[in-house]
Write a structure and sequence with these properties.
Blueprint lengths: L2 H18 L7 H9 L7 H6 L7 H14 L1
Helix pairs in contact: 1-2
Length: about 70
């Protein structure tokens, strides 16, 4: 689908959501970000320049489940 058409639909959904006071199924900001490129981000720069270290998802999920089980 053309980008302009997708943005138009997203704008219409955003206006309708204000009227219905509900969250639109496809938020306009997400559509703009997606049509501009991707929602995927590369963390290598943050890891190198800021010395930020991310925990792998598997480990994080395991820790979260342990926390839920142990309350």
């Amino acid at each position: 689908m053309p980008k302009a058409f997708i943005l138009l639909i997203a704008q219409i959904m955003a206006r309708l959501s204000r009227w219905t006071r509900s969250r639109p199924p496809l938020p306009l900001d997400v559509i703009k970000t997606t049509t501009a490129g991707s929602l995927l981000f590369d963390t290598k720069r943050a890891e190198q320049q800021r010395e930020i270290h991310y925990t792998p998802q598997r480990q994080t999920r395991g820790e979260a489940m342990d926390e839920i089980r142990n309350g």
